[in-house]
Structure formats: C-alpha cells, structure tokens
Write a structure and sequence with these properties.
Elements (H helix, E strand, L loop, with lengths): L6 E2 L8 E3 L2 E2 L9 E2 L3 E2 L1 H16 L3 H9 L3 H16 L3 H18 L1 E4 L2 E4 H5 L8 E6 L13 E3 L2 E3 L1 H14 L4 H15 L1 H8 L2 E6 L8 H6 L3 E5 L5 H11 L5 E6 L9 H4 L8 H10 L5 E6 L6 H20 L4 E4 L6 E5 H12 L3 H9 L9 E7 L2 E5 L10
Parallel strand pairs: 1-4, 11-12, 11-14, 12-13, 14-15
Antiparallel strand pairs: 2-6, 3-5, 6-7, 8-13, 9-10, 16-18, 17-18
Length: 403
C-alpha cells in the first residue's frame, strides 16, 4: 500500500556562515511536500525596505505598495527609486531609514556554525579567540625623500604628474568626470608628492582591504605609495596570497595579514594566510580590533561573489566594519559604488549628462525608437530629490537585485 505521508521537500544544501533570513512556511500541501521555514530573497528585501520606512516614520504610500507587490523580480527598481527619493528628503530621514534597515538586516540575517544558529549581530559579539595571528611583509625599496607620484592607468599607459593633470583637464572639458572627482584626484597628487605631508599621513594610518586580491581593489596602488595595508582575503588559497605578496615587492609599502598557528614560519605563511569573510567574520573583526593599535584605520570593502552570495558577503563586510568602528573610534569606511544602482546626482552632472544624451549618435536614436524606448534610454528620472539634485536610475532588471 502507498504511504499517505507527504514527500519531503527537495534537498537544499546547508550553508554556513552568514545566511539569508528564514521566512514562515508556505502552503505546499497541494504538491505533496512538507515545507518548513524557507529562504526568500524577495521577502527579505521587501521587509528591509519596510523597516527603513517604519524607523523614519514616513512613506505610508510606499509601504502599502510594497505590501501589495507580487511581481518583485520585475518591479523592484520602482520600489528602490521610491526609497532613495524618500531618504533624500533630509539628512535626518536618510540616517533614520539607514539605521532601521541595517538593524533589521543585522537582526534577521543568520550566522550558522557547527549546527548552531545565531543572528548576525549575536555572532559578531562571540568570536573564537586566538584564531588569527599577525604576519608582516615589507617592500624592498627605500622610501623616497622627494615624495611619491600618483599613477593612473589609461589606454595602456600610466599617467602621472603633468600628463595626468592634462588628462584631468581634458576629461573635465568633455564632461567625463565631475569636478569633485577632479578635485579629489588633484588633492591626492599633491598629498603624496609632498614627502613631509605624506610621511605624516601614512605614518599614522593603515588601510584595511577586505577582498585584498580583487582586481578592482586598491591594494597594489596603496603599497606602491608606501602605505600600510592590512589585507584580508580567502584562507587556504596560496595563489591569491602569492599574488598579493608580489604587490609589495619593489615598493616601500608595508603589508599586514592574518595567519594561523605555526604558519608564520618563513616559507609556509601563504598556505594558511587569510580568513573567510562569510564564515569567519567575527574572528576577522576581533583581529582587526587589535592589529596595529597605534594606527587609525580606513576599512575598504571590495569582496565580491556572484548572485545572492554577494548580499551575504556584503552583510559580512558591513558587520565586520561595524564591529571595528565600535571598538576603534576614528575608523573611517570606503566602498566602491556600482553604476547599476539608484543614487543622487548634482545638477551640474545632470546637465552634462543631458547634453551628452542630446548629442548621442544616430544609431543610438534608432535603437531607442525600434525598441519602443527600451534600449539606449536616458537614465535620469527628471525627478528632483531635493534642492540641487536629481535621481539617476541605473538599475538593470536583467541582473536581478539584492532581493
């Protein structure tokens, strides 16, 4: 006789470290499955946005729209656009919404280790002590008494000095980069070229690079300028650490990294250097809280994974940074912004973008017409978020989103 017991829900791989929140079970009885609490990236994103609005006591209509949404996969850009416009009302609203959303995520994201599940916030307060020790490498080039030169790669060449200054002027004239970017680049050029000023700066500062081996990261540039870099990347990947070690050669930089046990013996450190941001975040934060105590830190988050795992590693890096900021006052943060996002833009940049769009080539106009406005479309919403700014919607639904 056939059993009347429903078949178990199809096997899902058990993940460890930072994991998505679980949501109440769905009714799958019609399909003959028993279904317990499950992961829903869409539900997590919606609830996080709701937490933002509720914390700031705003966005009544936006909350109602979120609760009614049934086509999140295709409609999420509209909701994040509403979120950005609402947060732009004032600095106070923006901060309240950010705190509300981050609090929800820290409380709801799970940290799984050895069969035990804690909230991410709880796990960060309970690191395994003594897991990570410190190893140091120094470059073999003497420090320059004449200052350093900022070098920027462009069209197969490295630009510095007057060549870089001329290129900045050309980019400004053609509207390629904003004045604030030009100003920051010129400031950095002047800072590192002054031996006295740069020595004082790098002598009191260290740059933490989470995802130190990332091609888009600043590890090599910082080391070339003689800075102290505290590098964190995957454990058990000797090739990554050998590549990072190559970056310090020929520089006057200083490389600090986490290692384990007797791996500090010469010739063996690459085998057990590093830490997994997803599964060892509490230990990374604990190590960063005590390494180089005499220096002020800037923490840069450059780790990346594909798909829904990127949200997990982003949460891990945020939790690490939050913990270190709480234990080391004066710590600052650095991130790389994505162009496929929604953000505020100054009026001057909006004006330049509008002029360039109006002067677009004929093939782009044709593509826009034959696609009924879908391709080669203008990316600004023409909605003023606040005085002096409009909103850029650079989302690409084909990429998916954090939800």
């Amino acid at each position: 006789a056939q059993s009347s017991k429903p078949a178990p829900w199809p096997h899902r791989k058990v993940e460890s470290g930072v994991c998505w929140p679980l949501h109440p079970p769905k009714d799958c009885s019609k399909r003959g499955h028993q279904h317990g609490p499950s992961i829903s990236t869409s539900a997590s994103a919606i609830e996080a946005l709701l937490a933002c609005y509720e914390a700031a006591q705003c966005g009544t209509e936006e909350q109602a729209s979120l609760r009614k949404e049934r086509r999140w996969r295709f409609q999420y850009p509209h909701h994040f656009l509403d979120h950005v416009k609402t947060a732009a009302q004032s600095p106070e609203v923006a901060r309240a919404m950010a705190r509300g959303g981050l609090s929800y995520l820290t409380d709801r994201f799970r940290f799984v280790r050895n069969g035990t599940t804690l909230s991410l916030g709880e796990a960060m307060a309970q690191p395994r002590s003594g897991l990570l020790e410190t190893f140091e490498l120094r470059g073999d080039s003497p420090r320059s008494t004449a200052g350093m030169a900022l070098r920027v790669p462009y069209k197969g060449k490295w630009l510095s000095g007057e060549a870089l200054a001329r290129q900045l002027d050309a980019w400004k004239s053609s509207g390629v980069i904003e004045p604030s970017c030009i100003g920051a680049t010129r400031f950095t050029m002047e800072l590192v070229s002054s031996a006295e000023r740069w020595d004082a700066c790098r002598g009191s500062h260290a740059f933490v690079v989470l995802g130190a081996g990332a091609a888009i990261g600043p590890t090599a540039t910082l080391l070339s300028l003689g800075a102290t870099v505290i590098a964190v990347d995957l454990h058990g990947r000797p090739k990554i650490w050998k590549n990072i070690a190559q970056m310090v050669k020929g520089t006057c930089g200083r490389l600090i990294l986490p290692v384990r046990g007797d791996s500090k013996r010469k010739g063996h450190w690459t085998d057990t250097a590093g830490a997994d941001l997803l599964t060892e975040g509490p230990e990374v934060a604990e190590w960063l809280a005590r390494v180089c105590p005499e220096l002020t830190l800037t923490i840069g988050c450059y780790g990346y994974l594909d798909g829904q795992k990127f949200v997990r590693i982003a949460m891990a890096m945020d939790a690490i940074a939050t913990r270190v900021v709480a234990t080391r006052p004066g710590t600052s943060l650095a991130f790389l912004a994505s162009p496929t996002d929604i953000y505020l833009r100054p009026e001057a940049a909006s004006k330049w973008a509008g002029e360039r769009f109006a002067a677009r080539p004929a093939w782009m106009r044709a593509a826009n017409i034959v696609s009924w406005g879908e391709f080669c479309a203008e990316n600004r919403t023409r909605v003023k978020a606040r005085e002096g700014y409009d909103v850029v919607d650079g989302t690409v639904t084909q990429q998916g989103c954090p939800g």
